[in-house]
Amino acid sequence: MSRRIQIFDTTLRDGEQSPGFSMSLGQKLRVARVLADMKVDIIEAGFPAASPGDYEAVRAIAGEIRGPIIAGLCRTIPRDIERTIEAVESAENSRIHTFIATSPIHRDLKLKMSPDEVIQHAVNAVKLARSACDDVEFSAEDGIRTEREYLAEVLQAVIEAGATTVNIPDTVGYSTPTEMYDLFSWLGKTVPGIENVHMSTHCHNDLGLAVANSLAAVEGGATQIECALNGIGERAGNCALEEVVMALRTRADHYGVEVGVDTTRLASASHLLAAVTGNFVPRNKAIVGENAFAHEAGIHQHGMLASRETYEIMEPETVGVKDSQLILGKHSGRHAVVDRAKQMGYELEDDEVELIMKRFKDLADVKKRVFDSDLEAIITGYETSTMGPWSLNWLSVVSRVNGESTPSASLTLAHEDGTTSTHTGDGDGPVDAIVEALELVTGTKIEVLSLAMRSISLGEDAQGEANMRAKVDGIEYSGHGLSTDIVAACAEALLEIVNRAIRNADQVRQTNVA
Ligand code: KIV
Ligand code: ZN
């Protein structure tokens, strides 16, 4: 039987902690549900000691998600470990993941600890974690730039202290595939007891080698890969889950290992993450990009017509990309919509269906044909419409090219307390004017950081999607809007940002009072 590789997903920890990818509690739960449906082995849900929000998210995920092991990250500091133990205690299966840097650069310049002190911290942390949890992972941060003999000593000590997984991260994305293979093979032969625990790889993508390095680690004996959807993570990101899983599966003849992930969920999971974080996936991204299975050049199309194998090494269906674009319309009922969503890889919860149906009907009223991509955009963005306290009732925008008039926007917002408020703003362009009008209505100061737009589906009545990032009171938020009118989509995205900021401020006030 071939070796089984554990897929450890860190989208919600390493991914979420990187700039531009923060998620609300509700969004983290949605991503965690999708990861569980996809059958990853471990979900690293967060870093509980980092903030109260992180702690609550890990606790909520541990309480709800069944199937995968739920891991929480902590430094080797006792109060970090205790907080993590509390956060994951309600999980069906939990893991404490503790780490300390082992490389000379980190020991001398960051930790200011001797090699022996580092080992002592690591051992104490693993023992404390093991006193509460049978599943303990130890990571030697910057393991790749650590002296080999010393790294082997650290790993032996933590295994003797009770670690059940040892992770050797390439924290700064410095390694090469040959080095990875060599190091993992050497550790496998050198460290006493390593054959009884999981040996894990965690690669960053600074040189674009994270996937190649992770695969090389597997060839060298790693039994766990740490990775993230769409490759998100610190700086240039982590090893992309969809790429590494499809490489192992497509080239099973070469790697000779198995993974338990349901690959038909990859495309929908990637799209969901892109929508909730407001970061589009590049068209040419391997496995999940729009072009990943598109064949444009005449010679390629000719080959594909003769046989798919000429230019296709994977069938799109294996990653959840469907050939057919079933078209729904205003007469399509709840059953057809839920059924189609299911075929596309989205298991809708009962409370989601009503909101999604409402948005679907609104869209079908203005758009004759609702494509799969429209339905997907509604599903992945549905949280926008559920979020108060403000909602958009009416919007009118004046634009200008070479004229005298100033671009302006008038809008009416309804508040969940039943009141409405109308204001007009002006600015350099329509989006700027909407920002001013929103500020006047809601009393929030918005500093726009970025705006990305794209068209979803086909035809004159295609929907536009807007992803925006903005700062309110020094905190960065993302917003997502969807409409057949692209300016209205921007207004929706900005409104989501304002609503998030207001809800966040309310939450902080409540926590302080308590
Ligand atoms: O990159 C890294 O070293 C990490 C560890 C905490 C696992 O993310
Ligand atoms: Zn990392």
Structure description:
This protein has 514 residues and is an alpha/beta fold. It folds into three domains: 275 residues, Aldolase class I (TIM Barrel); 86 residues, Recoverin, domain 1 (Orthogonal Bundle), CATH 1.10.238; 127 residues, 2-Layer Sandwich (Double Stranded RNA Binding Domain). The protein contains 19 helices and 15 strands. Strands 1-2-3-4-5-6-7-8 form an eight-stranded parallel β-barrel, surrounded by eight helices. Strands 10-11-12 form a three-stranded antiparallel sheet. A hairpin with a 2-residue loop joins strand 14 and strand 15. Helix 6 packs parallel to helix 7. The longest helix has 28 residues. The N and C termini lie far apart (56 Å). Bound molecules: 3-methyl-2-oxobutanoic acid and zinc ion. Zinc ion binds next to loops.
Kindly provide the radius of gyration, computed on alpha-carbon positions and rounded to a whole number of angstroms: 25 Å
Classified in CATH, the superfamily of the largest domain is Aldolase class I
Number of helices: 19
Major sheet, described briefly?
A: 8 strands, parallel, barrel
Q: What would the CATH topology of the largest domain be?
A: TIM Barrel
Gist of the model:
By secondary structure, this protein is an alpha/beta fold. It has helices at residues 11-15, 25-37, 52-64, 78-88, 104-111, 115-132, 148-161, 177-190, 210-219, 241-250, 252-255, 266-277, 298-306, 334-343, 350-366, 372-380, 382-386, 430-442, 486-513; strands at 3-9, 42-46, 69-75, 94-101, 136-141, 165-170, 198-203, 224-227, 257-259, 390-398, 408-415, 420-426, 447-456, 463-472, 475-483. The strands form three sheets. The chain has an eight-stranded parallel β-barrel, surrounded by eight helices. A three-stranded antiparallel sheet has the order 10-11-12. A three-stranded antiparallel sheet has the order 13-14-15.
